[in-house]
User: Which sequence fits this backbone?
């Protein structure tokens, strides 16, 4: 074989030697022992660092914020509900107060109407009796006239003597005279009844005394007791057996508001006019009581209380309290 060019690099590792040129080992030659490979040292790699997730913290924060927001909303709703309930309770209380005032006013009006009705009924009862009696007398007169005329006609028809006719006429005249006297008495009774009705009407609405002298004169004219008083704003005074307290006055409108205490109850008389009787009914009274204020200024009122005769026997009236005065 021709010689091939040798590569110096291959010569280093013996690659340039032809395989056929290498001498084959003889059986007696022993190959050199191959050195044992060096032990492989293990390489330590640190565990990878795992990044901690922030998701649970964010979720927890959001939950806390939601809980706080819900607590705030609940608190606001509770406060709103409490305010609504309180406002409703206040409105209900105001309505109850208004209803109580209206009921008190209705009781007062009922007492006034009852007093007026009682007095009028008593007077009308007398008038009704007198009218019934007048009708009976009129019927009797008509019957007697018919009888007298019938008798006269009978006497004329029978051609009675003049003496008999005169006697019948005299009897008829005497009967007519008696009937006329009864009619005159009846007219007097009716007139007295009308005077009594007018007096009762004056007691309830018309006869108002504006001075002490007028009150004394009124006490002499009527069958009632009168008690004078003067009240200061906020004070309470016993008038007769009735307690009166002045709440307020209004000189511009010329009216006042007062509380009356009687029969274990309290009644409010609001915005009452001066010189106008305030009527109310007291147990045991035969007719209504009247409270009249005839003088009013910024803080005081003056007037009198009118009651049925003898309703408060242990309290001196305007006549009894006069020097040397007594019951008239």
Assistant:
């Amino acid at each position: 074989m021709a010689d091939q060019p040798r590569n110096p690099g291959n010569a280093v590792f013996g690659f340039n030697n032809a395989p056929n040129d290498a001498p084959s080992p003889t059986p007696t030659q022993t190959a050199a022992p191959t050195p044992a490979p060096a032990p492989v040292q293990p390489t330590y790699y640190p565990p990878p660092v795992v990044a901690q997730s922030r998701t649970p913290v964010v979720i927890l924060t959001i939950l806390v914020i939601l809980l706080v927001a819900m607590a705030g909303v609940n608190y606001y709703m509770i406060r709103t509900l409490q305010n609504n309930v309180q406002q409703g309770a206040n409105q209900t209380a105001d309505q109850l107060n208004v209803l109580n005032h209206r009921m008190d006013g209705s009781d007062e009006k009922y007492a006034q109407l009852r007093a007026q009705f009682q007095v009028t009924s008593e007077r009308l009862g007398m008038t009704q009796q007198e009218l019934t009696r007048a009708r009976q007398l009129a019927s009797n007169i008509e019957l007697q006239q018919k009888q007298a005329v019938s008798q006269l006609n009978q006497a004329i028809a029978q051609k009675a003597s003049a003496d008999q006719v005169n006697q019948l006429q005299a009897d008829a005249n005497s009967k007519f005279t008696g009937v006329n006297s009864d009619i005159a008495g009846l007219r007097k009774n009716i007139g007295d009844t009308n005077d009594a009705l007018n007096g009762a009407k004056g007691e309830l609405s018309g006869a108002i005394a504006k001075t002490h002298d007028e009150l004394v004169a009124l006490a002499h004219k009527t069958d009632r007791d009168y008690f004078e008083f003067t009240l200061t704003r906020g004070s309470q005074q016993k008038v007769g057996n009735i307690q009166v307290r002045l709440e307020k006055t209004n000189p511009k409108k010329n009216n006042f508001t007062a509380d009356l205490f009687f029969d274990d109850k309290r009644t409010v008389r609001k915005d009452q006019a001066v010189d106008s009787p305030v009527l109310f009914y007291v147990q045991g009274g035969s007719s209504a009581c009247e409270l009249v204020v005839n003088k009013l200024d910024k803080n005081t009122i003056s007037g009198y209380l009118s009651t049925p005769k003898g309703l408060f026997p242990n309290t001196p009236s305007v006549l009894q309290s006069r020097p040397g005065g007594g019951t008239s």
